[in-house]
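Extended Data, panel c. Modelled sequence:
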Amino acid sequence: IGAYASDQAQPTIQCSTSALTGGTWSTGTNWVGGNAPDTDTEIANLSRDWSSAPTFNLSAATTINGLTYEDQGASGDVTGTIGNGGSASNTLTFAGTTPTVTIASGNTLNITATLGGTGSFTKSGQGFLVLSNPGSLSSITISAGTLAYDLGATNYSLSQSLSGPGTFDKRGSGTLTLTGAGSSPLASVGTIAIRG
């Protein structure tokens, strides 16, 4: 099933050196052990000394427990992307026990694929997680760093709530309406930034 991290509750699968410019998520050679993470008990580790900005394209609807992103090079952290490979049905779902997305300090991961499911996850680490389509999630906890919605010119009404001491950053010229539980879906977010 891949490489395990002994201090993780869930098995972690490390991307391989074959993935230094990204590629198709499901390609076995892009992962140590030959199997791509695709269950709610597996964590994808996208941490490498990236030679250029990597893009991983999903080739099917994919479920994982969580992921970690870090450019481990000595100079100039590059931005990673998880895309849908040109098909809107290729969604990414975080599920299982305590789903968590960790972005290291100084790093940015863009998820342009739609997030699937109606559950929740925690955004951890001091880096930036940028979502283009947060889907129908019920809630996201921003425990550290920044969660950004980069929605472009599209107007969104999302039935979800955001909480935690981190920063929420709304980008793009479209209107974002959050209708999650409570009197204000953003009431307990540490910092709010609005752009566009």
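Residues 1-8 have pLDDT under 50 and may be disordered. This feature is highlighted in the accompanying rendering.
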